Model the fold of this input.
Amino acid sequence: MMNKKPTQHPTDVPPRIYLPASLRQPIEEHLGAAYPQEACGLLLTEPNQPLMQPEREIHIAAVWPMANEAPEAERFNRYAIAPAAMHQAQNQASAAGLDIVGVYHSHPDAPAQPSATDLTAAWPVYIYIIVHTGSTGATEWQAWRLSEDGPHRVFVQVALET
Done:
């Protein structure tokens, strides 16, 4: 009897993210201007690039810097996007024919790996690009997505190409 390979759920196969170099520069400028505080923004695509399709490729078409609305004293290691600002961005994206597929944010003087706070706040429908920033600028870029299995929440690294 042959062993069958278990069927993978579509969300078990991480997407491949393509970030054009032309969009990397505005992200670097935004994150650099905020250093040593965290900065954040949205990642947008053309419609119909859902994260839930197996073996999917996500091509980032636009990035929108957002204000870090975390309390002033926490902005050195936290970011927050105000619900009203997110709602407005969703409306603007829809009007522009774009879909919000994720968030980018910086980790000043810290690795480009999700923190415990990132894990708590993450949504499984989004991708997250985390950028290590320091006094010399952006030095490490990593992409992640949240995987949930009941009460278990973990980040899975995603291939990021620029």
